[in-house]
Design goal:
single chain; mainly beta; 5-stranded mixed beta sheet; globular
């Protein structure tokens, strides 16, 4: 169950979420943002992502074959996925960016920063901001019945939302998730951009899931010239450049996926549950995740 927790360490800017969203095909993306009080359509993510999950190579495995590749007979633990929703145009965000950078050094955390675009009107257009990242954050809000999104916001394992958290609150949320057993075993074999992925539920899942590929830029230093952070030089870490669905999974059948990726940017594979919303599937718990080395 996705939980939202709000702390008063930073004020945290907010934006109303449009009430009636329609699917755009982007991973967990809603399709509306607010600009001058009006709902505006958010386009699909760029189709040119250099990652291919060939439909011919996604297959369900028979029981005997699944047993050969199963990584464990009981739930396992894995790295915790931490999403930061931030913007260079948000005056409350630099402290969160700095905290996020510290946490990103942990081997047991996969830290991913998604820059949103709804503060660009304040005078500084965030070059890392993308409407599909705004849409993903809004989808999380809709999943919990919220109508407001905030920056800075961190989401832990797809189910706990923290607005402007302090170090202790964030670490406590991460440690709690590290104590939880994974309901999915995830095995990845391969190298140099060619991978075979095997998914297997420890027991059949109640909801289907989606397999996602994330690419990110490890570091950037930005001199911000205008807007609320004018005059500041800010270090950014693990800046997401692409977040894309590559396969749907029923959460029941052991499944093999062949995956080819191109380019030098680091990559992460995420398996996340989805729930039916009024107009589209909404994001749920992150079931498994791994870095693709």
């Amino acid at each position: 169950m996705f939980a939202a927790r709000f702390t008063g360490v930073w004020f945290g800017l907010c934006l109303m979420v449009a009430g009636d969203l329609v699917s755009t095909g982007v991973a967990f993306a809603g399709d509306a943002t607010m600009s001058s009080g009006n709902a505006v359509s958010v386009p699909d993510a760029p189709p040119g992502m250099r990652a291919r999950a060939s439909a011919a190579m996604v297959e369900q495995m028979d029981v005997a074959e699944a047993g050969q590749v199963q990584t464990a007979g009981a739930p396992t633990n894995g790295p915790v996925v931490l999403e930061l929703y931030t913007s260079q145009g948000c005056s409350s965000c630099p402290p969160a960016d700095a905290l996020f950078a510290r946490i990103a050094k942990r081997d047991d955390v996969i830290a991913l920063a998604l820059h949103v675009d709804y503060w660009d009107y304040l005078g500084w257009k965030d070059p890392f901001g993308k409407p599909e990242f705004t849409a993903r954050q809004k989808a999380y809000a809709l999943a919990t019945g919220e109508r407001i999104v905030y920056t800075p916001q961190m989401i832990v394992e797809g189910r706990e939302a923290l607005v402007g958290p302090g170090h202790d609150d964030l670490v406590a949320a991460i440690e709690h998730e590290l104590d939880q057993a994974r309901p999915v075993t995830l095995e990845v074999n391969g190298s140099e951009g060619h991978f075979e992925v095997v998914l297997r539920p420890v027991k059949p899942l109640a909801d289907p899931a989606v397999v996602q590929l994330v690419r990110y830029r490890p570091q950037a230093t930005v001199d911000i010239l205008r807007g609320e952070n004018a005059g500041k030089t800010v270090e950014y870490t693990n800046i997401v450049t692409e977040w894309r669905d590559i396969a749907n999974w029923d959460g029941v059948s052991p499944t093999r996926l062949a995956l080819d990726i191109e380019g030098d940017e680091p990559a992460v594979l995420i398996v996340q549950s989805v729930h039916e919303g009024r107009n589209r599937p909404l994001p749920g718990q992150i079931l498994a995740a791994t870095r693709l080395d």
